[in-house]
Write the structure tokens for this entry.
Amino acid sequence: MEYMKSSLKRFAITIKDLTAIVEADKESIDGAHVEVDIFEVVENVKQDLSNLIVASNAKIEVICDDKLSVRFPKKSFKSIIYNLLSNAIKYRSPERAAVALVKMEKIDGKIHLAVTDNGIGIPLDRQDKVFTMFKRFHDHVEGSGLGLYIVKRMVDNANGQIKVNSTLNEGTTFTIIF
């Protein structure tokens, strides 16, 4: 019975994530691009993740010029931040307190959004596969393997670019260029 409950839970998560893919595509076509306030979005995500943040004693910091914003569908932007911050906490190192830094800046006329953590990192030979649908590298965390795929899809739909840079046992940075 426990195995069935666990399987149903994983199935429900997968269905939810697949729905998010369809919604991301729809929003990129129909969604209004608005000026998104990074501070507001991160605060909303922190509220959504409050149980996980408290349980892990994670710290999340935002660095951004108050005048800097990005035009993007607000729901998609929140989903991107949610996925990257929840991964930063879920894949934290057991050897240190989890810290995530969200930094947005303008470089060469483009907005760069970086989410950096001090977690367990991703091996170099797997970094090119992190955005693949249903790809998971760790079994100690629940998930469907769709979160980063969805993030990449949203970024691609907005003609943006996403990169990953990670060092095993030191941490990971995801950088989105709008």
